[in-house]
Amino acid sequence: MWWLAGPQDLHRVEDRVSTVYVERSHIDRDENAVVVVNQERTIRLPAAMVAALLLGPGTRITHAAVRLLADSGTTMCWVGERGVRMYASGLGMSRSSGLIQRQAYLVSRIPQRLAVARQMYGMRFPGEDVSGATMQQLRGREGARVKKLYRLAAEESGVPWTGRVYQAGDAMAVGDDVNRLLSAGHACLYGICHAAIVGLGASPALGFVHTGGATSFVLDIADLYKADYTIPLAFELAAAGRTEERDVRLALRNRVADGRLMAQVVHDIKDLLLDGSDWNEDEAAHLWDERVGAVLGGRDYSDQAPALVGISGPELPVVPVDW
């Protein structure tokens, strides 16, 4: 079956639709497609062409749909309303631990972590030498850069700007129209970056600039693209009087529909973490050993297997559904 192909046979994450957000709907499987059903419409999604499926409040999903998405390499994320909170995530495209091991190595050593952080800031200051800057200096320069971006966007759009205001966890709760659009747009951008990170097999938690959160690396990566996507978009929409969360979500979707952003995110993540070094994407089933590094997995190393407790409901007849 095509959806049980190896990871190297799946559609590359940069070739997929970025994210699909679903709320107040039922999600099931119909043959090789995921079907989203609600009171207004029924939508079929080709699972292998979606990078991440964001499951919002009021969403139900069947085991069959989850299995198809997992086998297709589609990341599943259980999120809060409008996607502004991340609760849990499912397996992405990668079946290798090579990239996350490399990421853990870099983030746990101060010289290497500082080098990656400088590289991230260097991407925002093209042509400038940041190799000798401290983190305090880099944060100061970044703060000045972002303030300038807000000021220029306000001047070009004619939208008044008095400063950034937001409330963590609720993108549309506080601030004026442009502030709320910025928060909602950033939340959508986080979803795109999260899908790329998990799809490649990296950790969304192991950040280099941000730290301490479950999505620290997502924030690191998303900050690279706000100046080109969400900041100008929020001011454009505010100037046009389109101030609903749905407005910025659909506008950002249309702006990244050509796939260039996802491809750029994937390229930048690899460039930051690998820096030209080799990366083995093959799935490995080895066990770690302190003497030789790894030993063959897939064999029983004990005389007695641990107990497994299972809970199962009664067998139910499968009722075909005419979509």
How does this model look, in words?
The protein has helices spanning 63-71, 98-107, 110-124, 135-157, 177-200, 216-222, 230-239, 245-255, 260-274, and strands at 17-22, 26-30, 33-37, 42-46, 50-55, 60-61, 75-79, 86-89, 286-289, 293-296. With 323 residues, it is an alpha/beta fold. It has 2 domains: 7-89, Ribosomal Protein L15, Chain: K, domain 2, CATH 3.100.10; 98-274, CRISPR-associated endonuclease Cas1, C-terminal domain (Four Helix Bundle (Hemerythrin (Met), subunit A)), CATH 1.20.120.920. The strands form 3 sheets. A 4-stranded mixed β-sheet has the order 1-5-7-8, with helices on both faces. A hairpin with a 6-residue loop joins strand 7 (75-79) and strand 8 (86-89). Helix 5 (177-200) crosses helix 6, helix 5 (177-200) runs antiparallel to helix 7 and helix 7 (230-239) crosses helix 8. The longest helix is centred in the middle third of the chain and has 24 residues, at 177-200.
Assembly form of the protein: single chain
In total, the number of domains comes to: 2
CA-CA gap between termini? 22 Å
Tally the helices. Answer: 9
Topology:
Layout: E1 17-22, E2 26-30, E3 33-37, E4 42-46, E5 50-55, E6 60-61, H1 63-71, E7 75-79, E8 86-89, H2 98-107, H3 110-124, H4 135-157, H5 177-200, H6 216-222, H7 230-239, H8 245-255, H9 260-274, E9 286-289, E10 293-296
Helix pairs in contact: 4-7, 5-6, 5-7, 5-8, 5-9, 7-8
How is this structure best summarized?
This protein is an alpha/beta fold. It has helices spanning 63-71, 98-107, 110-124, 135-157, 177-200, 216-222, 230-239, 245-255, 260-274, and strands at residues 17-22, 26-30, 33-37, 42-46, 50-55, 60-61, 75-79, 86-89, 286-289, 293-296.
